[in-house]
Amino acid sequence: MADERLGSESLYSRVLKKPEFTSVVGVIGVFLVFFMIAEDAMFTLEGVLSWTEQAALIGIIAVGACLLMIGGEFDLSVGSMIGFSGIIMAIMTVEYGVPAWISIITAFIVACGIGFLNGYIVVKTKLPSFIVTLASLFILRGLTVAISRLLTDQTLVGGVKEASEGDWLASLFGGEAFTGLFTYLAEIGMIATFDDGTPVVTGIKMLLVWWVGLTIIGVVILRLTKYGNWIYATGGDEQASKNMGVPTDKVKIMLFMATAVCATIFAACQVFDYGSADAQRGLLKEFEAIIAVVMGGALLTGGYGTVIGASLGALIFGIVNIGISYTAIDSDWFRVFLGMMLLGAVMLSNSVRKKIMRS
Amino acid sequence: MLKKVICGLLCASSLILAKDINIAVVTHGADTDGFWSVVKNGVNAATKDMGVNVNYRNPASGDLTEMSRLIASAVAKRPDGLVVTIPDSNALGGAIKKAIKLGIPVITINSGGAYGKEVGALMHIGQSEYDAGLQAGKRAKKAGVKTFICINQEITNISLEQRCQGFADALGVKNNMLDVGVDPAEIERKVKPRLKDYDAVLALGPVATSPTMRAVKKARLGRHIYFVTFDLSKDIIKGIKSGVIDFAIDQQQYLQGYMPIVVLTQMAKYGVLQSGDINSGPGYVTKENVSNVEKYAGKYR
Prior knowledge:
By secondary structure, chain A is an all-alpha fold. Chain A is built from 16 helices and 4 strands.
């Protein structure tokens, strides 16, 4: 055949060339390690939920971080944004008795504003987003401590659960889904129960639903809309896309707003599930999100990556992070092990990718 | 090759797990805080002495919701006993209640005793933070102290706030906390300029104390600053000996690690349980008794 583009590709090689494939390999690798070294409890229903919840939290912000990274920028203020939105919601709901749904909507509006500001400054000054959002990291964390100390004299605001009882929007973040299914499973003896017959696991936390939902939204935007093309183009070659008529500034500002919104979804899930907010929440989460995105196969330089990959990266992070507590590894070595597993996962998926690209 | 070695080590260590009594310990202490290192020494010593298997966990970044998931994963293993700290009952309450409902014996250590009682924990091993602060404040008041600043390295921890509150109430002044974080250089920089406005300084742990001592030295106020600190470390002992620190409140946290393992082991073995809490502190370390304490500071005290 004269032209290789006309050759038909086997299904096998098409699967291999999917950008998500490498992170699937990473997930399988991590699973294998934990199958070997972890106790069986890790793979019971309770066990699985304990690490998928961790994965879901990272996943929610990883979706935003992934879109932004494909668009060629970073947001280091994600963790601080989580703390800030959380404290806004908690203080408004608990200290001022505002209905929870109003506090949540307010937090989202504020988050959009901050995301817009981040994006606007990056676009207008042409400063690296790394530096601009590093500044917002400090400013937002500082504001979180300062405002909560100013208004409540402490940095931990509790009692959100009681104050938001029965609120329709709060239960959309802090509630549980599929509770009926779990009660049924308990009745027929499929899952563990307390002595009184009620299930130990009463439902799937909403944050898992959000994780899946956001991943689907991210995939749809990237794959099926013109905005997806714009995001890839902006991150791939900004000048060229500008010349082609892509509104790159607008795209970037929107992406910064999207990351801030994701951070606020994270915060809302946490505040209304655990019933409290404190100024330390979300610390270092920006890096966990970036690690997840990179493990998912995205390039730090922009223009390449997938949302499903990022979500799988978050899953790897969740498995490793919580999975260690199901092993006999001493907690002193936690970070060493975590770092090694993450590096291993990235290296594994990276080498697989190279091999595929060569063939 | 390396992979094989690592796997070998890990597999071997998971085999050692096959002992009869399993106890899980989940604390909120940061890995790098000397205080928690002593607690862990207590846990390790008791683990050896009792011949049981103990799994000690703490959230790496200090995130309490992550700690909640660590408790959940400990509970999923259905241990024979669970030892927890409760710095924030909102974030951790759900997971702890679940453990109690499943019939797992729970002992609270260090913080959260009152909440633990409320939901059915067996006992608390620690010191009443507010009381410890109050007593220390009374001592300071006797020495003529009128104003103070509280150096808080873990501002989100309610128990630390209670220490300051107790001290403030004893003096009859507003609770004046300074959020310093855990970076030593940063603590020193933040504390130094503030010292001149106060008679006394209350540092809430070794992490905050060493930099504060340097700040006091460098500030050259030309007067003695009444210096009270919580918990012990080598630096604090030195400070007490040299007279920079007036006294330290010792909660003897080694016992907070050691005792719960002993109690839970006996309970798992024979079903015996003492009644009442164990007060591990407060004790006061002053110039008079410091040499006794010195030998073990940072390891067992």
